[in-house]
Amino acid sequence: MGTLRETTNPYRLDCHNVRRVRARLADLTLICTVPFLCMISNSIAVTAQTKAATEYQVKAAFLYNFAKFVDWPPSAFTDAKQPLDVCVYGRDPFGTALEDALLGKSIGERRVSLGRAMQFQDLVGCHVIFVSASVHEPAADLANRLKGRAVLLVGESEGFAASGGAIQFTIEDNRVHFVINPDAADRAGLKISSKLLALAKIVRDSNRSVAGSALR
Length: 216
Fold this sequence. Notes:
By secondary structure, the chain is of the alpha/beta class. The protein is 29% helix and 22% strand. The chain has helices at residues 18-29, 35-47, 55-68, 97-102, 139-145, 182-187, 194-197; strands at 70-71, 84-89, 106-107, 110-117, 128-131, 152-155, 167-172, 175-180, 191-192, 201-203, 209-212. The protein is globular.
């Protein structure tokens, strides 16, 4: 990540209390059961000594690693050189965190690119769409509008995954967690790694929680 910025976000790590910062980094390190989580905790640990790691810096790192643990069908790309495009739909809450986490990175042989759109019709070509809290369109409606497209739909609104989104960020105990709806991913033609599923709370289209555990 790049330089972490100060923020008034209530979920930030408090860099004014060194022991609290170290404790939270220790908690994050405990979840390193697969390599990508270790990389996230390591990247935060390098910079959190002097700046606060914010909610959206953590979410940006997760977006990159979600993409690494999802398989897209060949039909999702026009050719072997097309970038994997991560897009924000609605008002962008990330600041520079997405650029810091994603630009210059690659997933497999594809470089990662970024896009932002306030209008749904401008999301053509996106492979990961983060739906910000400023978008009030139900996840089910968004999923229907994306029907036939291999798109990982990620949101942060309450009930987003249970109502048709593939992945939903949640905040519990001031930490970023995530929920996955495998049914939604299947409908989009996406295969989510079992390693990622094992770390998530799982919901189905019936809104019933069936397995998994949140990041702790």
